Amino acid sequence: MMIKKPENKIDSVVSKITLIGTIVLVIGMIVFVFISLYFLAPVNSKSDDMVDFLVEEGWSKHKIADQLDQNNLIKSSFFFKIYMKINEKEMYAGTYKLSKSMSVDEIIKILNSAASLENETITVTFIEGRRLTSYVDKISETFAIPKEDILNKISDEAYLNSLINQYWFLNEDILNKDLYYALEGYLFPDTYIIKKSATIEEIISKMLSTMENKLSLFKDDINVSDYSMHELITLASIIELEGASSDDRAGVAGVFYNRLKDSWTLGSDVTTYYAAKKDFSVDLTWSEINDCNPYNTRGTCFTGLPIGPIASPSLASLTAVFEPAEHDYYYFVADKNKKTYFNITEADHVAERNRLIKEKLWHEY
Length: 365
What we know:
Elements: H1 9-40, E1 50-55, H2 61-70, H3 77-87, E2 94-99, H4 104-113, E3 121-125, H5 132-143, H6 147-154, H7 157-166, E4 191-195, H8 200-216, H9 219-224, H10 229-242, H11 249-261, H12 269-275, H13 286-289, H14 315-322, E5 331-334, E6 340-343, H15 346-358
Antiparallel strand pairs: 1-2, 3-4, 5-6
Helix pairs in contact: 2-3, 10-11, 10-14, 11-14
């Protein structure tokens, strides 16, 4: 008679746990595969609509995934990121024709092909510190849109109201009838890749969206500021021009804040030039300096900020508005080497300027 070996209860339990673990793992993998297949499939396989999707220079793969998700071209940025990591495909800057009917595989293949629509886009640079009229000229020349059409559009009250409803940083201040141009200062200066066929609305929207992104960095500061958004943009535009020959924009901002706090006039020449609609290549007249124009801060008709922005400020000037230097100065002057000198009294300021002239360091316009 054969005697059976006693069953090892521990081995039996381990075997059962291993079997259960294997089953759970297999089921988990099957579920993951099905979920992945769902999220890697087209958003809408029946859609025939093609959209232009822009990949900007320097964008990371995660940024591209997030933008595809925001444009509803993929079902999940999370699974897209995982899939990209597995495939290790490069993606190139450019503008591409994509559709909701494309799978993730198809989208990656297109973005990897570098078959962008460069022939259908234009790269255009808007320089900081320029007036809106300069941007109108640039848009007109680049996109063959009549200047009159651009000016009519950006002064149309219905259109401006639609922008106020769309962008949180725009409000009724831009509707003031005394403003030369409602959107002065709000179109962010940058290099853009834009469709050749872009409309005025699309170009303006692109520049306003970029401004929105920049201002979002300072939302907490904006919420607690004693100044309105319009006033903050106005101050940034003045700093852009007054600090253009200086690296110390925060110091310049501090001077203006001191003057505003003590109810002084800003005494800024650049506002007077804007008020007179002159560029810096010509001199101001005494009548222009003393003119009671709501843009002119050299006159004595009012104190504080002008009625609106006088140019498009850069990120550096916006930063200076929200992060000004704290000091006791009320005057500043910059030499031709971009070094800034600050003074408390007018007498010291005049002496500083005379010294720079004598030493041939005075910045000639």
